[in-house]
Design a protein that fits this description.
The structure is a single chain. The protein has one domain. About 55% of the residues lie in helices and about 20% in strands. It has three helices and three strands, in the order ββααβα. It is globular, with a radius of gyration of 14 Å.
Length: about 100
């Protein structure tokens, strides 16, 4: 049974998808490190961590009314660039 654990990072909800108990344990460990401040959460670090541990993840961008227009746009552009980087990274891995 697949379980989802959300992490909120600015305007993005990062969702890890655990397939087994080992994945759940790793996600819980990562979550506790983020909460304690041992690990800073960023889109790139999060995706690298998930790939390194073989954990599937998704993301959802959402508009926040409590953020200024410029901040929402800046975060949207950063998410788009991060996603494009992910796509190109996967394409390059398939070519090798």
């Amino acid at each position: 049974m697949q379980t989802a654990t959300p992490f909120i990072f600015k305007n993005v909800m990062l969702i890890t998808l655990a397939n087994n108990d080992s994945d759940r344990f790793q996600i819980e460990s990562y979550e506790s490190m983020v909460r304690s401040g041992t690990v800073k959460i960023s889109l790139k670090d999060f995706s690298n961590w998930c790939r390194g541990h073989g954990i599937a993840y998704e993301y959802r961008f959402f508009w926040r009314n409590d953020y200024p227009l410029a901040a929402n746009l800046w975060n949207a552009i950063n998410v788009l660039l991060w996603r494009l980087n992910e796509i190109f990274h996967n394409v390059l891995l398939l070519r090798v």
